[in-house]
UniProtKB/TrEMBL annotation:
InterPro entries: KIF11-like (IPR047149), Kinesin_motor_dom (IPR001752), Kinesin_motor_dom_sf (IPR036961), P-loop_NTPase (IPR027417). Residues 1-148 form the Kinesin motor domain. SUPFAM superfamilies: P-loop containing nucleoside triphosphate hydrolases (SSF52540). This is Kinesin motor domain-containing protein. PANTHER family: KINESIN-LIKE PROTEIN KIF11 (PTHR47970), KINESIN-LIKE PROTEIN KIN-5B (PTHR47970:SF32). It is found in: Cytoplasm, Cytoskeleton.
Length: 186
């Protein structure tokens, strides 16, 4: 299995598994490898420059989580544009709206938000009275998001021989259908 770990902070995507670049000047820049968020022409979001690491056990995953977490930016932040837009996208999906206000975060999550994936939401909340407003907001997001209906599909990459066989069989099926139509049996 391959694992990636990224951070979206102030509309900037960075790779948390990238090796440090000693040529950069400040200590924060040394730990941050910027990643480009693009679309592949088929409507899928692609992250260019994101490191993938192969893992073989839960311990490998925990080690990567520790390494990546140490590079995360941690600070008290106000509710930002990404989270507000995420809320708007969740509302639009639940209400079956035709317009989606996508930005970096919601583009990144687009397949998970009402598309072809099975999605699990983990709402991290605090029992502290100091965090009450943030906790209520998080629970509200999770409650609204649970009403999004996805249609999961298997994400299969076909090898060339398998794809050729599939295309050949599809061509034969279409020829047979055409033959039936011409003979009046279809």
């Amino acid at each position: 299995m391959k694992v990636t770990f990224l951070e979206l902070y102030n509309e900037e995507v960075t790779d948390l598994l990238a090796q440090e670049d000693s040529s950069r000047s400040s200590s924060e820049d040394k730990q941050k490898k910027h990643v480009s968020l693009m679309e592949d022409g088929k409507g899928c979001v692609v992250l260019r420059g994101l490191e993938e690491e192969v893992v073989y056990s839960a311990n490998d995953i925990y080690a990567l989580l520790e390494r990546g977490s140490s590079k995360r930016r941690t600070a008290d932040t106000l509710l930002n544009k990404s989270l507000l837009t995420l809320g708007r996208v969740i509302n639009a999906l639940v209400e079956h709206s035709s317009h989606m206000p996508y930005i970096e975060l919601t583009r990144l999550l687009r397949d998970s938000l009402g598309r072809k994936t099975e999605t699990c939401i983990i709402a991290t909340i605090s029992p502290s009275a100091h965090s009450l407003e943030e906790t209520l907001s998080t629970l509200d997001y999770a409650y609204r998001a649970k009403n999004i209906k996805n249609k999961p599909e298997a994400n299969q990459k076909l090898s060339k021989p398998v794809l050729l066989i599939y295309l050949y069989l599809e061509l034969e099926r279409m020829k047979e259908g055409l033959h039936k139509c011409k003979s009046g049996k279809g």
